[in-house]
Amino acid sequence: MTIDAKIVDAKKQVRTVSFHDDDPSDIELIKALGGKEGDDFEYLGEVDQWSVIRLKGGSDRMVVGKPPQNSAPVKRRQSCVLADGQAASVAYFFP
User: Fold this and answer.
1) pTM higher than 0.70 for the full model?
2) In whole angstroms, what is the distance from residue 44 CA to residue 70 CA?
3) In what order do the strands lie in the sheet containing 14-19?
4) Which three-class secondary structure string do you get for 27-66?
5) Quick one: average pLDDT of 41-68?
6) Average pLDDT over residues 47-52
């Protein structure tokens, strides 16, 4: 199952990215943010069922479904169904 995430840049312009797995790996999230293997991301926080991350030292932020708990029977994130304006608000909720 595929899921979508929203990437919000410093000007609060939003684009949607799709992942072919409903629990994308860290490297898939990093690459979607423009990083490469060896880069890392910062976890900025959660708003409702959404996680906000960005590359360390980066400015673009990703709004994606919260990661599943390790004990969850099914490992999957929710697809980001927020409107672009809502995604920008969530992404910049954190300093």
Assistant:
1) yes
2) 20
3) 14-19, 3-8, 61-65, 50-55, 41-47
4) HHHHHHCCCCCCCCEEEEEEECCEEEEEECCCCCEEEEEC
5) 94
6) 95
